[in-house]
Protein backbone atom coordinates (compact mmCIF):
# COMPACT_ATOMS: atom_id res chain seq x y z
CA UNK A 1 0.00 0.00 0.00
CA UNK A 2 1.78 3.17 -1.15
CA UNK A 3 0.34 5.88 1.12
CA UNK A 4 -0.50 5.88 4.82
CA UNK A 5 -2.61 8.77 6.15
CA UNK A 6 -1.79 9.33 9.83
CA UNK A 7 -4.19 11.41 11.93
CA UNK A 8 -3.46 12.36 15.55
CA UNK A 9 -6.60 12.96 17.63
CA UNK A 10 -7.55 14.23 21.05
CA UNK A 11 -11.20 14.85 21.96
CA UNK A 12 -12.36 15.32 18.37
CA UNK A 13 -15.75 13.61 18.70
CA UNK A 14 -17.77 16.68 17.70
CA UNK A 15 -16.46 16.84 14.13
CA UNK A 16 -14.30 13.77 13.49
CA UNK A 17 -16.88 11.70 11.62
CA UNK A 18 -17.32 14.41 8.98
CA UNK A 19 -13.61 14.57 8.22
CA UNK A 20 -13.07 10.81 8.27
CA UNK A 21 -16.06 10.24 5.98
CA UNK A 22 -14.46 12.61 3.48
CA UNK A 23 -11.35 10.39 3.43
CA UNK A 24 -13.28 7.27 2.48
CA UNK A 25 -12.96 8.11 -1.23
CA UNK A 26 -9.23 7.39 -0.87
CA UNK A 27 -9.53 4.02 0.87
CA UNK A 28 -8.53 1.95 -2.17
CA UNK A 29 -5.28 3.87 -2.55
CA UNK A 30 -4.19 4.27 1.05
CA UNK A 31 -4.57 3.17 4.63
CA UNK A 32 -6.02 5.45 7.30
CA UNK A 33 -4.44 5.35 10.75
CA UNK A 34 -5.91 7.28 13.68
CA UNK A 35 -3.64 7.70 16.70
CA UNK A 36 -5.53 8.88 19.77
CA UNK A 37 -3.80 10.61 22.66
CA UNK A 38 -6.26 9.61 25.40
CA UNK A 39 -9.53 11.26 24.43
CA UNK A 40 -12.14 11.64 27.14
CA UNK A 41 -15.00 11.65 24.64
CA UNK A 42 -16.18 9.23 21.94
CA UNK A 43 -13.33 9.93 19.51
CA UNK A 44 -12.00 6.37 19.44
CA UNK A 45 -15.44 4.80 18.91
CA UNK A 46 -16.24 7.26 16.15
CA UNK A 47 -12.92 6.66 14.38
CA UNK A 48 -13.08 2.86 14.37
CA UNK A 49 -15.49 2.32 11.42
CA UNK A 50 -13.63 4.80 9.22
CA UNK A 51 -10.00 3.82 9.87
CA UNK A 52 -7.91 0.79 9.01
CA UNK A 53 -6.19 1.09 12.36
CA UNK A 54 -6.91 3.01 15.58
CA UNK A 55 -4.00 3.20 18.01
CA UNK A 56 -3.81 4.54 21.56
CA UNK A 57 -0.65 6.48 22.43
CA UNK A 58 0.67 8.98 24.92
CA UNK A 59 -0.69 12.44 24.21
CA UNK A 60 1.41 14.81 22.13
CA UNK A 61 1.00 15.37 18.41
CA UNK A 62 4.65 14.57 17.60
CA UNK A 63 4.60 11.35 19.60
CA UNK A 64 1.25 10.29 18.16
CA UNK A 65 2.42 10.82 14.58
CA UNK A 66 5.63 8.90 15.25
CA UNK A 67 3.64 5.99 16.68
CA UNK A 68 1.38 6.06 13.62
CA UNK A 69 4.40 6.01 11.32
CA UNK A 70 5.82 3.00 13.15
CA UNK A 71 2.62 1.05 12.43
CA UNK A 72 2.16 2.31 8.86
CA UNK A 73 2.52 0.04 5.85
CA UNK A 74 2.88 2.73 3.20
CA UNK A 75 6.03 3.91 1.45
CA UNK A 76 4.66 7.48 1.72
CA UNK A 77 3.45 8.99 4.99
CA UNK A 78 0.83 11.76 4.95
CA UNK A 79 0.34 13.50 8.30
CA UNK A 80 -3.11 15.04 8.47
CA UNK A 81 -4.81 17.10 11.15
CA UNK A 82 -8.17 15.79 12.31
CA UNK A 83 -9.99 18.91 11.06
CA UNK A 84 -8.48 19.08 7.56
CA UNK A 85 -9.89 17.97 4.20
CA UNK A 86 -7.68 16.84 1.32
CA UNK A 87 -8.07 17.82 -2.34
CA UNK A 88 -10.01 15.19 -4.30
CA UNK A 89 -6.94 14.14 -6.31
CA UNK A 90 -4.56 14.36 -3.33
CA UNK A 91 -3.07 10.88 -3.63
CA UNK A 92 -2.36 11.18 -7.35
CA UNK A 93 -0.76 14.59 -6.81
CA UNK A 94 1.49 13.22 -4.08
CA UNK A 95 2.63 10.25 -6.12
CA UNK A 96 3.34 12.46 -9.13
CA UNK A 97 5.27 14.95 -7.00
CA UNK A 98 7.60 12.60 -5.14
CA UNK A 99 10.59 11.69 -7.25
CA UNK A 100 14.09 10.75 -6.08
CA UNK A 101 15.09 14.42 -5.95
CA UNK A 102 11.92 15.50 -4.11
CA UNK A 103 11.22 13.50 -0.99
CA UNK A 104 8.58 15.50 0.81
CA UNK A 105 6.05 18.27 0.42
CA UNK A 106 2.77 19.83 1.42
CA UNK A 107 -0.44 21.31 -0.01
CA UNK A 108 -1.52 24.91 -0.11
CA UNK A 109 -4.05 25.68 2.59
CA UNK A 110 -7.52 27.20 2.67
CA UNK A 111 -8.95 28.21 6.04
CA UNK A 112 -12.64 27.36 6.32
CA UNK A 113 -14.59 30.12 8.02
CA UNK A 114 -16.56 33.31 7.48
CA UNK A 115 -14.09 36.02 8.47
CA UNK A 116 -12.87 38.18 5.59
CA UNK A 117 -9.25 37.98 6.76
CA UNK A 118 -9.03 34.19 6.52
CA UNK A 119 -8.25 34.07 2.76
CA UNK A 120 -5.57 36.71 3.27
CA UNK A 121 -4.01 34.73 6.12
CA UNK A 122 -4.10 31.50 4.09
CA UNK A 123 -2.44 33.19 1.11
CA UNK A 124 0.28 34.57 3.38
CA UNK A 125 0.84 31.11 4.88
CA UNK A 126 1.18 29.56 1.43
CA UNK A 127 3.70 32.15 0.21
CA UNK A 128 5.68 32.05 3.44
CA UNK A 129 5.92 28.28 3.07
CA UNK A 130 7.14 28.57 -0.51
CA UNK A 131 9.78 31.13 0.41
CA UNK A 132 11.07 29.42 3.55
CA UNK A 133 10.60 25.74 2.78
CA UNK A 134 8.73 25.39 6.09
CA UNK A 135 5.23 23.91 6.21
CA UNK A 136 2.66 23.86 8.98
CA UNK A 137 0.94 20.67 10.02
CA UNK A 138 -2.44 21.76 8.72
CA UNK A 139 -1.02 21.92 5.18
CA UNK A 140 -0.85 18.12 5.10
CA UNK A 141 2.85 17.30 5.22
CA UNK A 142 3.75 14.19 3.21
CA UNK A 143 7.13 12.45 3.12
CA UNK A 144 8.67 9.22 1.88
CA UNK A 145 9.22 6.67 4.60
CA UNK A 146 12.93 6.57 3.83
CA UNK A 147 13.29 10.35 4.25
CA UNK A 148 11.25 10.31 7.46
CA UNK A 149 13.52 7.64 8.88
CA UNK A 150 16.64 9.42 7.64
CA UNK A 151 15.81 12.54 9.70
CA UNK A 152 14.90 10.41 12.74
CA UNK A 153 11.14 11.16 12.58
CA UNK A 154 9.43 13.97 14.49
CA UNK A 155 11.30 15.37 17.45
CA UNK A 156 9.11 14.59 20.44
CA UNK A 157 8.43 18.16 21.55
CA UNK A 158 5.30 19.93 22.75
CA UNK A 159 4.91 22.44 19.89
CA UNK A 160 6.56 23.48 16.61
CA UNK A 161 7.22 19.84 15.76
CA UNK A 162 6.21 20.57 12.17
CA UNK A 163 8.77 23.38 11.85
CA UNK A 164 11.48 21.17 13.33
CA UNK A 165 10.67 18.32 10.91
CA UNK A 166 10.69 20.64 7.90
CA UNK A 167 14.08 22.03 8.84
CA UNK A 168 15.47 18.51 8.99
CA UNK A 169 13.84 17.47 5.72
CA UNK A 170 15.16 20.56 3.95
CA UNK A 171 18.64 19.09 4.36
CA UNK A 172 17.54 16.23 2.11
CA UNK A 173 15.51 18.12 -0.48
CA UNK A 174 13.31 21.20 -0.86
CA UNK A 175 9.58 20.59 -0.41
CA UNK A 176 7.12 20.08 -3.25
CA UNK A 177 4.55 22.86 -2.79
CA UNK A 178 1.32 21.57 -4.33
CA UNK A 179 -1.05 24.39 -5.22
CA UNK A 180 -4.18 22.27 -4.73
CA UNK A 181 -5.67 23.24 -1.39
CA UNK A 182 -6.16 21.30 1.81
CA UNK A 183 -9.14 22.86 3.58
CA UNK A 184 -8.52 23.31 7.29
CA UNK A 185 -10.99 24.42 9.94
CA UNK A 186 -10.48 27.96 11.24
CA UNK A 187 -12.06 27.03 14.58
CA UNK A 188 -9.02 28.00 16.62
CA UNK A 189 -8.67 31.30 14.79
CA UNK A 190 -12.33 32.06 15.50
CA UNK A 191 -12.14 30.87 19.11
CA UNK A 192 -9.45 33.33 20.16
CA UNK A 193 -10.02 36.00 17.52
CA UNK A 194 -8.53 36.22 14.04
CA UNK A 195 -6.10 39.10 14.57
CA UNK A 196 -5.09 37.97 18.05
CA UNK A 197 -4.38 34.43 16.84
CA UNK A 198 -2.35 35.71 13.90
CA UNK A 199 -0.20 37.88 16.18
CA UNK A 200 0.10 35.05 18.71
CA UNK A 201 1.36 32.61 16.07
CA UNK A 202 3.90 35.15 14.80
CA UNK A 203 5.05 35.69 18.37
CA UNK A 204 5.37 31.98 19.13
CA UNK A 205 7.30 31.27 15.92
CA UNK A 206 9.66 34.18 16.60
CA UNK A 207 10.31 33.05 20.15
CA UNK A 208 10.89 29.50 18.96
CA UNK A 209 13.43 30.82 16.45
CA UNK A 210 15.28 32.50 19.32
CA UNK A 211 15.32 29.33 21.41
CA UNK A 212 12.22 29.44 23.61
CA UNK A 213 11.13 26.13 25.11
CA UNK A 214 8.46 24.30 23.07
CA UNK A 215 6.82 23.31 26.36
CA UNK A 216 6.42 26.96 27.39
CA UNK A 217 5.17 27.92 23.94
CA UNK A 218 2.66 25.04 23.99
CA UNK A 219 1.14 26.36 27.22
CA UNK A 220 0.69 29.79 25.66
CA UNK A 221 -0.74 28.26 22.48
CA UNK A 222 -3.32 26.18 24.35
CA UNK A 223 -4.44 29.17 26.43
CA UNK A 224 -4.35 31.63 23.54
CA UNK A 225 -2.23 34.11 25.47
CA UNK A 226 1.07 35.89 24.84
CA UNK A 227 2.52 35.54 28.34
CA UNK A 228 2.13 33.25 31.31
CA UNK A 229 -0.25 34.54 33.95
Overview of this structure, please?
β1, α1 and β2 form a beta-alpha-beta unit. The protein has 229 residues and is α/β, with parallel strands linked by helices. It has 10 helices and 8 strands. It has a single domain, classed as Spore Coat Polysaccharide Biosynthesis Protein SpsA, Chain A (Alpha-Beta Complex). An 8-stranded mixed sheet has the order 3-2-1-4-7-6-8-5. The longest helix has 16 residues. Helix content is 41%, strand content 21%.
How does the SSE layout of this entry go?
Blueprint: E1 3-9, H1 16-23, E2 30-36, H2 43-47, E3 53-56, H3 61-71, E4 76-79, E5 84-85, H4 90-97, E6 104-112, H5 118-132, E7 141-144, H6 145-150, H7 161-170, E8 176-185, H8 187-192, H9 194-209, H10 214-223
Parallel strand pairs: 1-2, 1-4, 2-3, 6-8
Antiparallel strand pairs: 4-7, 5-8, 6-7
Question: Helical proportion?
Answer: 40-55%
Number of structural domains? 1
Low-confidence stretches: none
Mind summarizing the main beta sheet?
8 strands, mixed
How do you describe this structure in short?
By secondary structure, the chain is α/β, with parallel strands linked by helices. Helices cover 41% and strands 21% of the residues. The mean pLDDT is 95.
Amino acid sequence: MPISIIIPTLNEAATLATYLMALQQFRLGCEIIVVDGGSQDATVNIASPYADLVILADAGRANQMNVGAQHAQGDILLFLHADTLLPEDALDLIQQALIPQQQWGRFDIELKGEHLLLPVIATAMNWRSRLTGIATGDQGIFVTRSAFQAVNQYTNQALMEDIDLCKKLNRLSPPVCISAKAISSARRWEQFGIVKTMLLMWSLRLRYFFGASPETLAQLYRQGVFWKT
